[in-house]
Amino acid sequence: MQFSTAALTALLATSAVASPTWGHGGDKKNHWLDKWDKNDYKHEKVFYFDKTIIVKAEPDQVRNGTTPVPGQPSAKGLFKFGINVEENTICYNITLSGVTGDYQSPALTATHIHEAARGTSGPPRLAFPNPKGPDDRRVSYGCLTGPFKTGVPGPDGADTGANFHVEQIVANPAGFFCDSHTKQFPLGAVRGQLA
Q1: How many domains, in total, are found in the chain?
Q2: pLDDT at 183
């Protein structure tokens, strides 16, 4: 599923439901479009979110197991997610402020959603592209569709993203957190619980 930058930004900024637009833009070669009964499609949705989540991630939420550990002082994260269960798709708009230095993680990327309750650690289930830009505002946005891969093997040897479905987040957002890791703060520069 492809989105333009402007369309994706609008989707995640407003969490609005999109509806199809019709017309052939004056191109007479597409006259077949005019034969469709547009009323048959007026209630169709181009793409929708079953759940939207906005998380403020902070350095004081980082944990090693259940032990608090320092994240990066004064760093902040804003994680916006839109989840479509039927398509097993999660769209994201992630902004990190005050996160400095190189990213580091044993996973494919250093920006994740992990499965664990508040105050505990747990395995990554989703790995997002790391936000890019200057240290005062690093940004990453797009969509991921399953099957997912984190690059981290679980206890059974399977990837911790294998067989994960975004409906698990919709069913229990309090059981998940998001974070981003750097070389200086390998356990997390910032972290925030999804609910």
Answers
A1: 2
A2: 98
Q: Can you give the pLDDT at residue 11?
A: 47
* Prior bond of 124 cis (ω within 30°): no
Give pTM, 2 decimals: 0.79
Of 25, 122, 111, give the one whose Cα is nearest residue 66.
Answer: 122
Give the domain extent around 82. Answer: 51-193
- Residues 164, 112 share a domain: yes
Residues 174, 176, 179, 183, CA torsion sign: positive
pLDDT at residue 37, rounded to an integer? 54
